[in-house]
Amino acid sequence: MADLSAFPITRRWVPQDPSKLQLFSFPTPNGVKASIMLEETGLPYEVHRVTLSDDDVKSDAFLSLNPNNKIPAIIDPDGPGGRPIGLFESGAILLYLGEKTGRLMGRDAAAKAHVTQWIMWQMGGLGPMLGQLGYFVKMGGKAIEDPRPRQRYVDEAKRLLSVVAGELADRDWIADEFSAADIAIAPWLNALNFYEAREIVGWADYPGLQDYLDRFMGRPAVKIGMKTPPREG
Question: Which positions fall inside the GST C-terminal domain (predicted)?
Answer without folding.
Answer: 108-233
